[in-house]
Amino acid sequence: MPERGAARDPAAYERIAAQLRELFVPGLDLTARMATAAALLHHKRPRFSWTGFYRLVEGELVVGPYQGLLACAILRPRWSGVCWAAVERGETIVVPDVHAFPGHIACDSRSRSEIVVPLRDAAGAVFAVLDVDSAEPDAFDEVDARGLEAIVELILEPTS
Asked: Which has the closest alpha carbon to 129: 114, 113, 108?
């Protein structure tokens, strides 16, 4: 599994962050930044089978910019699954086996593992999550968590 070693390499995320800094031109809005990040992550990390965002809209987690197969438009039931758990806990969640996660919402039956990183507004409230799935079991670790958290911070940086 050649990508497995690369998955543990923090430098891979640093290279992606550097590319995003170049792509995030002044004035680029949040939606465009999310879309750009989802596309770059998805195409640079072969083990990512679905890469995208869910946004809190009127109490629902609604799909945002993403790459991969068709997604669940709204994650239901509320407060179930990994994305809702990340919203509730306000922290990154790494799930080595989604089938063992209570209440997992299966938008793609091929998904085997998942990582979800919350996005916070200026007041600290979670308003969206970055959700990444893999068809491989145990595809994510702390290196992925720290790398994706840094990318989320970059997405949230104000542009001028």
From this structure: 114
The pLDDT, as a whole number, for residue 160 is: 66
Residue 51, classed as helix, strand or coil, is: strand
Beta strands in the chain (DSSP E): 50-57, 60-68, 93-95, 113-120, 126-134
Q: Report pLDDT digits (tens) over 77-88.
A: 888 899 999 999
Tell me the C-alpha distance between 61 and 2, whole Å: 34
Residue carrying structure tokens 């923090």: 10
pTM: 0.93
What does the pLDDT read at residue 35? Answer: 98
C-alpha torsion sign, points 72, 144, 18, 5: negative
Burial label, 142 (beta-carbon count in 10 A; 0-12, 13-18, 19+): exposed
User: Quick one: pLDDT band at residue 3, thresholds 50, 70, 90?
Assistant: very low
- Options 1.20.1600.10, 3.30.450.40, 1.10.760.10, 3.30.390.10; CATH for 2-156 is 3.30.450.40
pLDDT digits (tens, 9 = 90+) for 6-39: 456 889 999 999 999 999 999 999 999 999 999 9
SS3 content of the chain, % helix, strand, coil (to 5): 40, 25, 40
